[in-house]
Every structure is written in C-alpha cells, then in structure tokens.
Sequence to fold (429 residues):
Amino acid sequence: MDLSWLSVADANTRWVLTGASLLGLSSGVLGSFALLRRRSLMGDALAHAALPGVCIAFLLTGTKNLGLFLVGAAVAGLLGTMAISAITRYSKIKEDSALGLVLTVFFGIGIMLLTVIQRMPGGNQSGLDKFLFGQAAALVGSDVQLMTAIAAGLCLAVFLLFKEFKLLAFDPGFGAGLGLPMGILDLLLNLLILLAVVIGLQSVGVVLMAAMLITPAVAARYWTDRLATMTVLAGLFGAASGALGTLLSQLGPRMPTGPLIVLAATMVFLVSLFFAPRRGLVARLVRFLRLKRQVARETALRAVYELAEGAGDPGAAIGLEELRRRRGITGGGALEALARAGALSPAAPGAWRLTAAGLAEAHRLVREQRLWEVFLMHEGELGGAAVDRDGALVPAALRADLERLLRLHGLEPALSPRSATHTARGEGA
Fold:
C-alpha cells in the first residue's frame, strides 16, 4: 500500500484526518448521553433542522463562508430544539413523534431553499449540496481550528457536568429532588449535541450525522456497565472511526470520506456486537453452550441418584435404557462426561453407578431441587402434582436465601447422602 500521501507535505490530508477524529471524539462522548436518554433520533432531527439555517445564511450574505454557515446551522438547530420541547410540553404529542415532525418539516424547508439557491445565478457554485452528504476533503486549516475549539469545549463541558448529566440520564426525578435544574440541564445537553452536529455537517453531512452520534456510543455500551468508561470508549471509538474512514478514503480517487467514516464506525460496532467480552454474541453463545452442558450433566447426575434412591441402594448400577425410559435421558454424552469428571463409574456395558464424589455432588443437587419444590408448593401455592420433578434447577443466586427462608418456616426437606430412604417433596419437614 502506498502511504506516501501521509507525508508531512500533504497538509490537506492532515487537516481532514484531524477534523474527522475530533468530530468522532466529540460525537461519541455526547452520543453516550443521547443514547441513555433514549434520544437516538435527536442528532438526526437537529442535523436535518440545521440545513435551512445554512441555506438562509447563504441567502443573507451571498458568500460561501463556513463560519457563517455554522452560525446559521446553530440558530436553525436551536429553533428545532425549542420546537421539539414546545411540542412535547404543550401538546399530547410524544417526544418521538415531535422529533419526526421537526425533522421532516425543517428538512423539507431546507431542500426547498436549496433548490431556490441552485436556480440563482452562481448558485451551483455555492457548494451547499455538500452539506447533505458531507465533503470532508474540503476542510482547511481554519476549519479544523474551529472544530478543535468546539470539540474541546464540548468535552470540557461534559467533564465538568458529568455528575449532573449522569443524573439526567438515569434518574432526573432524583436530581430534581436535590434541587438541580434538570430542565435547564436537558436543554444544555441538547445544545451540546447541536454543536456536535454543526461541526460535523461539512464532514459527514446532514444525512449521516446521526450515525456519528449513536454508533460509537452503542459500540461502547457492549464493553462496559460504567458510564464513565462508556463515555471514554465512545469518544475513542468515534475518533478511531473518523481517522480510519479518512485513511480509507485515500486508497482510491474520489472516495467519499463521510460515508466511509460512518462505515468505519459500523465496523467498530460489528466487532463490539460479536466479540465484546460480556455482551458480545460470541461470548453469549459460549456461555449458553457451557450452561447447556452443565444443565445436561446435572440433570443426568440427579437422575442416576434418584433412580438409585428408588432402588434402595445409593451404589446401585443404573442402565442407560432405564434412564431413557424413566427420566428422559436420551444420550450417553452427559454420562460419559460425568465419568471423565469422576462422578460416575461404569458398572457394566451401558450401566453406571455413583462414585463417592458423585454421590456427594448428586446429594447437593437433589437437595437444592427439593428445596425449590418445597418453595413452589408453599410460597407459590402450587399442589405437589404441579411441580416438575425434571424442571430447571434452583437459580444459583437464590440458593442461600431460599434455604434460609425454608429453615425459618420449618419447611426444609430431610435428606441424607448416606440414607437409602429419603423424604421427598417436603414430607419430612
């Protein structure tokens, strides 16, 4: 791969790389709060609402000036934010409907004004159509300096108001009870999101800006349960997406930077979706398979124990056919795994008996299962026939609390690992 374009002499590439990274950083940080506030459409609505402001700024000045365009976008976005708030507060329309209404109305006005500008003398040279899909390659040093200042201000504001925004995201009612102006904080958060949208219009455009706010935050959510860590990760993912999209756009002529930045963010999200250590699909599949094998082994071990218990001899040999006929154990895989673990030993071809270690483990499992049955009968007001003897084991998180509860009420079933006669379903309580 030819990387000569990354030389110091290529100033334009450096500007684009820096600007896209800063955009991703600030968007990811603020997107975390937008995601937790369930306002994923807010960035999309504000981006579309900013388009008429850009067009009006050009109509009033007649010049193509990024600073004026951003001012116009900010004013229009502010009006869109106020419109959403007013519609939600003073009507029965829900917030999601208000977002969709403001998005479509403002964007329609923007497209109409854009059409008017395109028909004006010299209107085709205005470059306003680039705000629809972005043109990061047009960034220059002054643009990046402005983006740097705004991005730094956004990150600083989040850092200074992190605790307040955290309350706003998770429990605004509690924050209001503490005397915090939650309404003002909500408006301030929307304004910060608006500024992030405004600085991203030239890079990724109106249509794709929502992805820069939400995708890094969603990807970061898969990696952590802590808001502070999520915010940092979202900023890093956004910055990495901006840098990667810019680098990919340099691999060929006329490669669109904005869409590639969004695709890079999508790649980061897909990696998180599949390979995050706790919430990733691969990790969840591994945990599911492990749990499935554990349940199969514990069910087989309980079945051997209870059939031996019914035969009056804890060391009785239990055949696979009997397990299949009376307890529904259809395969020997779980039994072979238990034998490898030292819980069972082969007694004859197709027959198994409990070892000393297996007897102790089976006793523990059966005891927990009978505790659960007693709980269902007494606390759930179920009859004995309604308890599924081959049902799922008592959840591990409930075992200790359940045992204490049943002891307190004198409902613990009698059970001894050395006794051939056991009291089932709480009869000895």
Remarks:
- The domain at 10-279 is CATH 1.10.3470.10 (ABC transporter involved in vitamin B12 uptake, BtuC).
- The first strand starts at residue 318 and ends at 319.
- The radius of gyration is 32 Å.
